[in-house]
Amino acid sequence: MTPVKFLPAILLCLLPLCVQAETPEEKGLAIAVEADSRDTGFVDYTNNVQMILRNKQGQESIRVIRSKTLEVDGDGDKSQTIFDEPRDVKGTALLSFTHKEGPDDQWLYLPALKRVKRIASDNKSGPFMGSEFAYEDITSQEVEKYTYKFLRDDTLDGLDVFVFERYPIDKKSGYTRQIIWLDKEHYKERKIEYYDRKDALLKTLVFKDYHQYLDKFWRAHDMHMENHLTGKSTKLIQSDYEFNTGLTDRDFDKNSLKRAR
Amino acid sequence: MKKLLIAAIGLLPLVNLQAGDWRGYIELEGTAFFEDPAFEGQSNSNLSIAAEPEYIKEWNRGKDIFTFKPFYRIDQRDDNRTHGDLRELSWIHAASDWEVLAGVGKVFWGVTEAVHLVDIINQTDLVESFDGEEKLGQPMIDLSLIRDWGVVDLFVLPGFRERTFPSEDGRPRFAIPIDTDNPIYESSAEQHHTDFAARWSNSIGNWDIGLSYFYGTSREPRFVILPSAIDPVTGTVSETNPLYEIINQTSIDLQAIYGSWLWKLEAFTRGGQGDRFVSAAGGFEYTFVGVRESAIDVGVIAEYLYDGRDDEIGSIEIRPGTAFSTSPFQNDFVLGTRITLNDAQSTELLAVAIFDLEGNGQSFTVEASRRIGSDWILALEGSGFSNVSENTSLVSFKKDSNIRLKLTRYF
Prior knowledge:
- The complex is a heterodimer of chains A (about 260) and B (about 400).
- By secondary structure, chain A is α+β, with helices and mostly antiparallel strands.
- Chain A is built from four helices and 13 strands.
- Chain A has helices at about 5-20, 25-40, 135-140, 255-260, and strands at about 45-55, 60-70, 80-85, 95, 105-110, 115-120, 145-155, 160-170, 175-185, 190-195, 200-215, 215-225, 235-245.
- Chain B has a single domain, classed as Porin (Beta Barrel).
- Chain B is globular and about 70 Å long.
- Helices cover about 0% and strands about 50% of the residues of chain B.
């Protein structure tokens, strides 16, 4: 018997040791990488979004947007968002290029002026359309934008979940950390807690009503963000998902932004 | 313009109106002035109503778009401000590496806040707003070629739109009434001269850059005082005529983004209106995001404005028959702030002050707005002038500090 033939047996013996040796940071990262790889290959999709903003007194205001997303090999996604309501901003469009490293690029199109305005990339912690979602909550969540730490195995609403923390690398982020509850079966986010710069619990996001597309990609149709500091909340209802619609880079350039209606 | 409007209405039955989308606004506006007027005919207050519906039809998955956007305003005091315009009547077709817009449309170029120097395709609808941000629809064919190294836009602009100016009853207005019925053209083709423009633009990393060339009728007129407008006895000037000359203008607009900094530059060189001259504006906008752990963003705007022309309307050396220009920002400093509450009502405020560095005075503008309910916007605008000297064209407006309230219903 040559030593080579022993190798698989040796490796098998080592495997449990490797898992043992995995630090919480490595395990957290491995979970994030697996979740990301399970959502890779969607190519493109379009969807409609309704946001219901609710203040402390229970008064509601509605936002309606249409969104297109294009997967980019080796970098973050490109997306274009067109606002339908409120009516005063109808036709306003936002173009975002997310990047794995460095700040994202964003341009805003103002239809009344026919003007494309570049947006300062530092405004990621600001509210999106007055809602409880910050820009950084809704742009594509690239693995490279955070460092990770596994906390524990747990259950949430009867589901087995991983619980881990992630820490934004960008110093302009509004958060010190986020705690993620991710189901073990499909690696879908079930809950996120956001901690502000003083490390106090600021917001909780709960994901519901998951649908699977193309037998692979899961999308939550109901996301509810609650701000514990202000008592305000935002419900985000996603619908009309269409995958593989044939979008190209041309649907995400500044000319396409000027064509947004 | 009337012919175009008739053509538009003729075309409407061809488009299935049910399948498209109507949107737009109706706006009620009230203005109050703080001081008694400088000129006879002007009043201390004004009411106005305007509407701008828009019809849009997209087909071919958004690769073809038809747009029809008329505008009309009725003004209590100013007959010139009671006016209509075909803002847009266009067909856009987008292919994989080119796009074309044919019809009446609007194009914006530029980056700076206080002035819009390189923005030349559309004529300014000055009666709408003295900041020059409202534009008249321009007949055009715009061919966009989309390449890896940027976008090239080639414009053919058949037909010229005259700038609108307030009437003698309008406020604010220039001291010398402008005879808008009798503009003077350099070209014998007058307003039928076909103009051309070309532009290259690109985004390279943190930079947005545009290089543009324009040949045709100047959107910004100079003015001439005809001998017949001068009273032979008293020597007083009764009116002046806009002079539209053929110009060639080359311009650059640049913007760089570094974190919270936006650095901006616009400049052009123009030949055809007397001696060739340069005009430039540059500066920055810095945004403090989420001040004091709130959702509020506060931006600080600083710009420097340069204009190589003389501002001659304030000078007493205007002779009959010679052309003169009105360009108040020769050597001026701009300081402003943009406050965005990022609340559900989209409350925002922009305040800008322009200081003449040669001591000819200051001008101020404030614009604040807030959504009421889901479909209304209430806006408050103020503008003021202080220490305005006789050496600037702004002297005409020195008593015109005012506050304006606008209530707009969007549908």
